[in-house]
Amino acid sequence: MRLLILDREHKLYAALIMAAEPGLVVVSGNDPDALQDAAAECPVWLGEPDLVGAMLRKGVFPVWVQSTWAGITPLLADDLPKDYTLTRAVGIFGQVMAEYLLTYLLAHERQLLGRLASQVGAQWDDRPPGSLHGRQVLIVGAGEIGQAVAHLLAPFGVELVGVASTARALSPFNRVGSLADLPRLVQTADYVINLLPDTPDTRDIYDLALFKRMKPSALFVNAGRGTAVVDADLTAALEANQLAGAVIDVCREEPLPAQHPFWLTPRLLLTGHTAAPTLPGLMVQLFRDNLARFWAGQGLRGEVDFTRGY
Prior knowledge:
With 310 residues, this protein is α/β, with parallel strands linked by helices. Helices cover 32% and strands 16% of the residues. The strands form 2 sheets. Strands 8-7-6-9-10-11-12 form a 7-stranded parallel β-sheet, with helices on one face. A 5-stranded parallel β-sheet has the order 2-1-3-4-5, sandwiched between helices.
């Protein structure tokens, strides 16, 4: 079987896959124009959704595409076909996302950035730090990644509250509400962490009205999708001291334009869409597992329902 790899890390992926699956004929690159003819002979593609989308627009269609991203928004565009099997990257981001979030939660409790500013100003900073113990952490998006984050945070003695598509019991959360419960749940949270995918129901949900419901001491972290946040409203909330701070990993437009207000918004930290990078070794393990399922005619992990958008 022939496999097309369309990814900026295509050389690494090709080497890892050919070593593990010598029976595959692998064609790889990151230029859809140069690979158009080869793609037509490959029923299976592995790659980044933006590059895959560019190839689909050339009228070349696969049987199955394995995305190397968790988010597949570029492939949901109205002008792209939906009559093929698409799987997103699942089961490989939980730990790196949890490490990212733990970094900034601990930095907030330990006032890391404030102490750095004090040092730059040659000021001795002996303010007592806080602790995660007893803090309420609201994870908005209690799916696979959200649950992995919750499991890592649980030993720190936090109160875990989740938001999912429906309210239900879900380990290790103390309780889980629905998206309709979000305005109520944010009122008591010390940390509000957005991990939601980009769907019509999740766009612009973090607006000024919601920020006003949050505790002035709360930290907001967006590691889900930039479309969930009304940028101007977040800036206004921070300028009015309605939030203690914000850590923003994902934005509506990336890279962020030089004139965007986030650059000058007080107590807002940008982390450049680095929260949960794809680790090639884990990605190849997922692909090989799904490849075996594909050959066996079994259901694939992370299969996308185009009507839901994830």
